[in-house]
Amino acid sequence: MTRDHTQAECYVITIDTNPKSIQSAERCISSAKRFATGQCPLCCESTTSPDLDINIFSAFTPRHDPLNLLQNKGINTNKLHISNNCSYVDAAAGCFLSHLTLWEKCIEINKPIVILEHDAIIKNQIPSNILDGTGFNFVINIGKPSYGNVKIPEFTGINLFTLKHLIGTHAYVVKPDGAYLLIEQAKKDSHRGGGAKAVDMFLNKKKFPFLQELYPWPVEAEPQFTTIQQPRNKYQRELILDEFGKVRTGVGCADLNLPQHGFENGFEDLL
Fold this sequence. Notes:
It contains seven helices and eleven strands.
């Protein structure tokens, strides 16, 4: 596959039927405008340029029947049903399909794609060698971990990813060659680590040892609600909404006495 070092395209995954998701995406887009020009504090290069327009990507949600769409693409969905996911299966399937579709687009346009989720906030310049793809190999995380105990990397700049898997997929960049490898892995049988699952669990070092990370992280997540995670305990502060912005009701993980969210330590059966 040929490599194209032109400027990346950038998409923020947005639930276009959910007013709070739209508001969050607009906040994400506004945060990028603060860094339209400037220099990277790490390399003194020109960084985010006025040409980096963040485009809205309309997310797949339960109304699109994402489980069926994934299966039609040859993607196994069994691991989405594992109880300790503590997720709404239809919403989790829509999330995976949204990322998968952007990987497909990356190959189609043959240039890097910056993938953001609606709760992402750009806190600093994104280096130009990330945006044009010359500074990393296949896939690079540029987002601060969004849950669990945040471990500060023991490096500055670009290095191999050190955790078991991404801790949130609110900000990463993929090149066409990397997108091809992600899609091929997703199409493998579940016992070979393939199939749909929580996207941050899918992007793991075991299956993708080439994963890289940029530190300091230029992007952070500031979630105000979730459409995927079920209630994990009575102290959960996030609103739990459906795809239309209405509060979800019903039984959650806390009510069923299921394991609480421990992805920062990794569930080996999900990798």
